[in-house]
Write the structure tokens for this entry.
Amino acid sequence: MENKNLDLEKQISEFKNIVRKKGLKFTPQRKKIFEEILKTEGHFQIEDLVHNIKEKGINVSRATVYRTLNIMKELGFVEEVIKFKNKTIYEVSLKHHHDHLICTNCGKIIEFHEEKIEELQNKICKKYKFHPDFHRLEIFGLCHECYKELKKKKRK
Amino acid sequence: MENKNLDLEKQISEFKNIVRKKGLKFTPQRKKIFEEILKTEGHFQIEDLVHNIKEKGINVSRATVYRTLNIMKELGFVEEVIKFKNKTIYEVSLKHHHDHLICTNCGKIIEFHEEKIEELQNKICKKYKFHPDFHRLEIFGLCHECYKELKKKKRK
DNA sequence: CTTTGTGCAAAGATTTTGCATTGCG
DNA sequence: CGCAATGCAAAATCTTTGCACAAAG
């Protein structure tokens, strides 16, 4: 628990330094948004963020949330990872790269990383003389729980 | 050329039959939209479609284009494949499955298919007891031409 | 003739932006 | 103090929808 708080402070401090190094300002709003993002399990949607912040009676406007996220994206603290049903899902980029299994029924996101897939991708890029920057691999389908549930319903 | 027109008619006819089989109506608008989609090189954006149709003086409203695309998606004639910069890119699903290299500079889309990646994906799904439906693999970066061009500019 | 489709305009949803004001550094 | 950030509301995008009318089957 204490450990966690130390981590949190360390990350916020790092964020502060990087923001300032870029000639930007470290405002209470940016701090708050960053804290809220760290509290998520790694993935979040903007509207959830806005909602969570509003709920706690903290004054950060939607515009600021959007603007801050764009800055964080540029600074590499978050990534736009998934677009599904016209919603953008962001991801906190504190871990190493991974891809996603997305349940189209319950919305659950499972992360995975398969080095061999990354290698094959590089091979393909070479073949097409393509210079990759980043990629997204999203597998949509049903998680085990939803699959079982839907199979049960079908039987009835 | 003649061959191509035969193909076209055959595909339109198939579309007509499937639409009717579903109890839906085969209207001139739906025919027109389908024809325009077939004319693309496999990928298109809704607004381009609307624009192309409008330009030819054909009367199909934006609402009808959106509604028709949703139907075509359900019927499997098109797929939503890429979300980039808040734009949805559709793909005509007449070819076998493939993935995409997307140039973030010029927007060019290169298609590829790598069976080994598909196999690895299946392996991963099994590991997580996930039941895949479809997937998207998008590699963003620079195509060879843009890479060369941007390198040249940087030097100056 | 019934039911579905269309066009239009309005409404929704998501994201960006202009401008006056605030506040960090 | 100067410049960047904020909040607000308006606007810009993209997409869906209600309703009256048209047309397919």
About this structure: Chain B has six helices and six strands. The domain at 96-156 of chain B is CATH 3.30.1490.190 (Dna Ligase; domain 1).
